[in-house]
Specification:
With about 210 residues, the chain is of the alpha/beta class. It has a single domain, classed as 4-Layer Sandwich (Metallo-beta-lactamase, Chain A), CATH 3.60.15. The chain has a 6-stranded mixed β-sheet with strand order 1-2-3-4-5-6, covered by helices on one side. A 6-stranded mixed β-sheet has the order 7-8-9-10-13-14. A two-stranded antiparallel sheet has the order 11-12. The longest helix is centred in the last third of the chain and has 12 residues. The radius of gyration is 16 Å and the shape is globular. The two termini are about 30 Å apart. Bound molecules: zinc ion (ZN) (2 copies). One zinc ion binds next to helix 2.
Amino acid sequence: MILESIIVGPFQENCYVVGDEESKVGTVVDPGEEPTRIALLVEKTGLEIASIILTHAHIDHVGAVVPLVEEYGCPVLLHSEAEPMLQQVPTQAMMMGVKFGRVPTVDRYIAEDEVLEVGSLRLRSLYTPGHAPGHLAFYEESEGVVISGDALFAGSVGRVDLPGGSMEVLLGSIQSRLLPLPDETRICPGHGPETTIGQEKTYNPFLQGGGLL
Ligand SMILES: [Zn+2]
Ligand SMILES: [Zn+2]
């Protein structure tokens, strides 16, 4: 499996370039900003980008979608419940005083528990709302990797003070969809360093006590 990441934009977001070494088919997950740097990373991997998939529609995860669609002519996929927020990104940007180009067109919705084939890779969508509406994580079981978006971070969880956020829903998502994965599963989050399911089960302060485990 090819799995490269790059930190982009003022929110220090992790964009992932994922693909299959043999077929060279790839996808870009959460291109948040800096399309030129992302395209250079893609070039380095030698992957043919066949899709752009989004964990959720916050501004820091979608800012480079339009220029990359122009570059690769590929479809954009996300969960249907994330689309209203995508349409509001220009308003978010204005309120935050940051620049935002055009809202990308969504080509297809990703269902819960859908398997997205990227060459021989099989990315299963895990429905994990609570940080944002329609939030998805993407799990490649045979590689033991989950791209967790802003649901679960090393030592923390996603913020819940933005529209559609709920700590109760978020902790429920983490407990039901992420913690059951094998302990050695690598977590590739939307911000900050990589971690593992076992590490977070043991040390993440948001996941201790309260009968959660
Ligand atoms: Zn977010
Ligand atoms: Zn984020």
